Amino acid sequence: xxxxxxxxxxxxxxxxxxxxxxxxxxxxxxxxxxxxxxxxxxxxxxxxxxxxxxxxxxxxxxxxxxxxxxxxxxxxxxxxxxxxxxxxxxxxxxxxxxxxxxxxxxxxxxxxxxxxxxxxxxxxxxxxxxxxxxxxxxxxxxxxxxxxxxxxxxxxxxxxxxxxxxxxxxxxxxxxxxxxxxxxxxxxxxxxxxxxxxxxxxxxxxxxxxxxxxxxxxxxxxxxxxxxxxxxxxxxxxxxxxxxxxxxxxxxxxxxxxxxxxxxxxxxxxxxxxxxxxxxxxxxxxxxxxxxxxxxxxxxxxxxxxxxxxxxxxxxxxxxxxxxxxxxxxxxxxxxxxxxxxxxxxxxxxxxxxxxxxxxxxxxxxxxxxxxxxxxxxxxxxxxxxxxxxxxxxxxxxxxxx
Length: 402
What we know:
The chain is an all-beta fold. It contains no helices and 36 strands. Strands 1-18-19-20-21 form a 5-stranded antiparallel beta sheet, with no helix packed on it. A 5-stranded mixed beta sheet has the order 2-33-32-30-29, with no helix packed on it. The radius of gyration is 19 Å and the shape is globular.
């Protein structure tokens, strides 16, 4: 096992590849886009903020975050070729509220996830939805000083079924934590973040390499207050691998997790940074590569202009040829959408340095503002969610075929 994401997440395999500095060229859409489901704020929920997972039969699973106009969040299934089916409704109580992260599926088909709110003290929960249709709370976060509060990242699992994740609050200093949850539900606080040069507030989950080192990002802090990339050893020693510098030549505020190739290069995105522009003139975000020696290369600067995306919130996936795929929450440039620079995009960055926009969202028909990454099936079809828009205005599930 080179790295751990989801036990049955069927992401496109990531293999070793090399890429140089990517050009800013953007090609036109050439793929087929299809809306598989438009949420209605009824039993199906509303506002999907998390990504999807796909099982071996092509069935999709995800969550909706809920909101004032619908409910406290749902877990849903979208069978291959079928209609969306709600599996579970959260009640805003002890069982949690507002699941905003991608699910984890084990080999038995049980689903695991977390909520950012709810639980015994309002810090969220880790839940399990069994393939038999029963839900249970695995752990209710207790907050500082011995637990996390507000889980915002996708969980991973090891071979012993221990779960690993992050919380943007909690820990000794109430600035975020990395935690381990045993199958029994007991929690080990692996690391507490502290406001300052070493970074704080992890907004995404972690990945694990074969030596059981964990890697993740902090959204804030660091020497330039722009966030960083960190490593946590099995012994609990934390190391800052890279500190972002912000505009104009680097990224700022990573909100997504990382992927790793077999040469141990890390790849990810930042929400802000790069050339001035976009929200509050903080920059439109970047795609970056971090080599094992700590050398960072910005692979692409998003511009939000000439059809390009802006502000990537979700993480990357990669195919066997080394092409990277992801989404941006804004950009696309054809029409205003919760701002002035578009409803978001799905993009590909090829090995030769070309960025292709696979789809530009248009809000009323196909959705708007994707806030999560993509998942792919064995045929190379891409699936994702748009948090808003669609036929009813409450978000969509979409498919992009080659």
